Amino acid sequence: MAWTRFAxxxxxxxxxxxxxxxxxxxxxxxxxxxxxxKAQFTGTDRSACTGEGACxxxxxxxxxxxxFGFYEPSERWRxxxxxxxxxxxxxxxxxxxFPARKALIPFLLVVxxxxxxxxxxxxxxxxxxxxxxxxxxxxxxxxxxxxGISLSLPLGILLALGRRSELPLxxxxxxxxxxxxxxxxxxxxxxxxxxxxxxxxxxxxEFDKLLRCLVGVVLFTSAYMAEVVRAGLQAVPKGQxxxxxxxxxxxxxxxxxxxxxxxxxxxxxxxxxxxxxxFKDTSLVLIIGMFxxxxxxxxxxxxPEWMGYAMEGYxxxxxxxxxFCFSMSRTSLRLEKRLExxx
Length: 343
What we know:
It is a single chain. This protein is mostly helical. Helix content is 71%, strand content 1%. It is globular. The model has no long low-confidence stretch (mean pLDDT 86).
């Protein structure tokens, strides 16, 4: 009965809301018509598409490629296994009463990223090696995002602490690092990691292109994360530092038990915003010859068999990006409410 109360309280606002809603439906109807009502969902090839609505057969035909890229079909159980490990690893983080959440931190920050790399790469214990040039699609998008998020947060916290350190040399080095990485766009970082860095390495020394890309993404994101965490540290009242000192806490105890929990709670929206930005920026790897989800859609749309159906692929990619970004945003809101209730 909220609408009834709203109508009695403000009839003019009700009329304006109704008009705006009608206009929205009028303008959005052709989109829904193209997406669903006149769209083609069944068939075996493009001859089944009528041309009046979206032809989702294109997405269905290229779905495996959008998810796994050019990864060997017989080895696709490995990305699925890695995805299951990441899901199982992060489920306890969302459970407030899970008894050993702190013990999972080394697993999430070190064991999980490293093991994911080796499982996907293979080349040991009978696992066939799959070159990183064949990785792609949503798998590559999630891999870059997950490793970037897992490693940039702790590194960003250390950089933020270094920037507020009373040791001048440590503070200057930290400030120089942060300002250097924040002064260049991510596309430049990826270009330097892919093209320029090999020229500065000794002869015979080579690093995998994806590994160089991951290092660049982690360092770039950690610089932004450091500024977000520094804002949280500045928001913690000075009395909290004095209270921790009065209890006899050392620097790391004071930071780990008193200051950092409050600082991170203050800047949860900023942290999640950085994560969302990183997830969307993974599409920039296309400029160094790597095909994430968006890159795979672009590559598939040039196939003569499906020429003219690129829009369906971009709509699918947009929906997947929105789904993950919206999920991260909602998770952030739930975490804020839970911490607010626990305060």
